[in-house]
């Protein structure tokens, strides 16, 4: 009962005319920022943060959370329409979202992304409200060994269930992991893989640079080859009937949505993880649980809904350790944490006791921001789909310009723009030779987490490799990983036996 | 052919990565009780090398699954021309500025490569830089490279910042 009373007080704050107006402005701005390749929720929150001092702390955090939510929704738009992830959190959405758009089902993909984001956001806010304190304890029990085992599991799902050439998949995973080590050694701080002594490599290879290069420039080069002037996609139309049909289609995926939400929420809570690994893991595990894993990557609606559910759930989950422990779960929550400190609010368990208005105002604003984001997003889908009708050469020009500027914007270094072109050409050639791209991107994102957790575990266990197997949770993850890794071998032996009998 | 070329390139890249990674310790680090700084990239590159060698051997034995048409001179020339145009644009950006380099690229792509009309070409070449200026510079405070054109922007800076 006390919980309902607190929540009712919170809604009284978040539903005031000023705060409602702020939510709508915030989600709309976030939607556009999230849809711009190279920009994301971090940029949106960082830009607006200094301007929030003109409103009370509750309104300020409501605005920032609205931008955060809007950007999480927006990331999917460019992933689906252009094949370039708007933000790192939306990279897994590209795997099936882009093929859906190319098949003329862009509207359905956008609806699926919006509805799945809404479901993921809503379920995780409910989980947040109900289980904030106990779940924070579970997340704290998740050590480096478990993190390493979880990442390993994510990779082996690609090897065992990817359906691609296994050698090529392993090469792409290793390449992504090797690229993730560029920069400074995590433990000693020594420079590593500083190619041609270029200072730009000291800060590592940015995930967005690789994603824009491969999915932006590489995709355009690949499409130019197949059609110089014809449209790259079948023009899509969207009516209210399509909207209703789309919502019903997504509704059928209730298992995926439920699983993605709870997993996304939990992974989001882990301080080192966040929304991007959550989305990629959810994608991998949805493929694992699917009855038709071979259709993933070829325009399966589940492949859009699953990561979108997880990334929105994770964005809410990442707020939990920030509020209860003062540990940000993602770069955006780190900014929100900074904002809270600037407003004189000290995050931690005492915050719930000392500042209940603020805490419950924030929690209730997550409900309103989530609802506003899905409504604004659905209302704007016809505009986004209309953008697909332009001639390919026009779309191509704008995308390439956006890739250059979007690649330059986050770091403001020409080095990154050169890398984009390099990755674009390499991505084009690798794609021509039928190398899978998803494992490469996944490995670059999860690489630092994998290496850090691996080395941390070994250091804390005095080099005992058995530490990964001895811990129950990590041991289970590793056992499943081994099974996935051996699956292709078993399939091969079975096939060879059949051929011999025939 | 494609499999062999790409596998060979990956093997060369792996060796280059291994050579770079071996600048740090690639074995067990007694000081910290874990692998050295170079171990992760070195051994990953070694796995990459072995897998690429596997693809090369498989291809040489004629057991490839590759079905694509790797080299098509006509379509390849389109790709090469766009890649070259992009390279020139990026090289031009720090010198002539983004607001000269990007519209030039757009003009080449729309008018010469895409054979679009003057109205569409001119409107996109003018409107896109204006949008970029207001979105990136004015709203997000992200300054794009100006090069020689920097002085032309001083009045705009005075007006909007």
UniProtKB/TrEMBL annotation, chain A:
Domain DUF112: 20-442
Protein's name in the database: Integral membrane protein, putative
Membrane-crossing segments per the record: 20-39, 46-69, 75-95, 107-133, 139-162, 169-189, 201-222, 257-280, 325-346, 358-386, 392-410, 473-493
PANTHER family: BLR4373 PROTEIN, TRICARBOXYLIC TRANSPORT PROTEIN
Keywords: Membrane, Transmembrane, Transmembrane helix
């Amino acid at each position: 009962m006390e919980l309902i009373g607190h929540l009712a007080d919170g809604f009284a704050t978040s539903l005031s005319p000023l705060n409602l107006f702020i939510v709508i402005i915030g989600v709309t701005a976030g939607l556009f920022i999230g849809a711009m390749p190279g920009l994301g929720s971090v940029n949106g929150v960082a830009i607006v943060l200094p301007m929030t001092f003109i409103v009370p702390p509750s309104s300020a955090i409501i605005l920032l959370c609205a931008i955060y939510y809007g950007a999480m929704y927006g990331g999917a738009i460019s992933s689906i329409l252009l094949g370039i992830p708007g933000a790192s959190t939306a990279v897994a959405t590209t795997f099936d979202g882009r093929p859906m758009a190319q098949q003329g089902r862009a509207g359905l993909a956008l609806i699926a992304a919006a509805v799945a984001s809404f479901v993921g956001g809503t379920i995780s806010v409910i989980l947040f409200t109900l289980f904030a304190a106990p779940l924070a304890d579970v997340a704290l029990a998740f050590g480096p060994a478990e993190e390493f085992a979880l990442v390993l599991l994510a990779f082996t799902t690609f090897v065992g269930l990817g359906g691609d050439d296994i050698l090529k998949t392993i090469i792409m995973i290793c390449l992504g992991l090797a690229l993730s080590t560029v920069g400074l050694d995590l433990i000693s701080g020594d420079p590593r893989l500083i190619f041609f002594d270029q200072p730009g490599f000291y800060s590592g290879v940015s995930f967005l640079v690789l994603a824009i290069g491969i999915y932006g420039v590489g995709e355009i080069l690949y499409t130019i080859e197949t059609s110089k002037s014809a449209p790259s996609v079948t023009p899509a139309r969207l009516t209210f009937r399509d909207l209703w049909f789309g919502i019903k289609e997504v509704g059928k995926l209730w298992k995926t949505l439920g699983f993605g939400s709870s997993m996304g929420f939990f992974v989001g809570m882990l301080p080192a993880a966040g929304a991007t690994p959550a989305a990629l893991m959810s994608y991998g595990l949805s493929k694992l649980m699917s009855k038709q894993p071979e259709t993933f990557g070829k325009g399966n609606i589940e492949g859009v809904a699953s990561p979108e559910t997880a990334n929105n759930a994770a964005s809410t989950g990442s707020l939990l350790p920030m509020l209860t422990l003062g540990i940000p779960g993602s770069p955006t929550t780190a900014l929100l944490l900074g904002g809270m400190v600037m407003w004189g609010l000290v995050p931690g368990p005492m915050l719930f006791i000392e500042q209940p208005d603020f805490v419950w105002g924030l929690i209730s604003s997550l409900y309103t921001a989530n609802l506003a984001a899905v409504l604004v997003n659905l209302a704007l889908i016809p505009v986004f789909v209309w953008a697909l009708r332009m001639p390919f050469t026009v779309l191509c020009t704008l995308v390439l310009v956006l890739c250059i500027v979007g690649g330059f914007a986050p770091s403001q270094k020409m080095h990154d723009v050169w890398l984009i072109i390099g990755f674009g050409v390499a991505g084009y050639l690798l794609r021509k030779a039928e190398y899978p791209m998803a494992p490469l991107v996944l490995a670059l994102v999860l690489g630092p987490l994998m290496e850090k957790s691996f080395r941390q575990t070994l250091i804390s266990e005095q080099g005992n490799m058995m530490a990964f197997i001895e811990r129950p949770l990590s041991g289970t993850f590793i056992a499943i990983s081994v099974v996935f890794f051996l699956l292709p071998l078993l399939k091969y032996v079975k096939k060879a036996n059949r051929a011999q009998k025939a | 052919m494609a499999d062999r070329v790409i596998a060979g390139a990956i093997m060369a890249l792996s060796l280059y990565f291994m050579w770079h990674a071996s600048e740090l310790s690639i074995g067990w680090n007694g000081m910290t009780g874990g692998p050295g700084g170079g171990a992760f990239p070195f051994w990953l590159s070694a796995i990459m090398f072995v897998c690429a060698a596997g693809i090369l051997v498989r291809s040489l034995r004629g057991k490839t699954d590759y079905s694509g048409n790797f080299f098509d001179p006509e379509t390849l020339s389109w790709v090469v021309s766009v890649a070259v145009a992009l390279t020139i644009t990026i090289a031009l950006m720090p010198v002539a500025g983004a607001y000269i380099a990007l519209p030039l690229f757009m003009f080449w792509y729309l008018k010469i490569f895409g054979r679009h009309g003057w109205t569409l070409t001119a409107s996109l070449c003018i409107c896109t830089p204006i949008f970029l200026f207001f979105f990136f510079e004015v709203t997000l405070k992200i300054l794009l490279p100006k090069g020689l054109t920097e002085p032309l922007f001083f009045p705009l800076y005075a007006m909007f910042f």
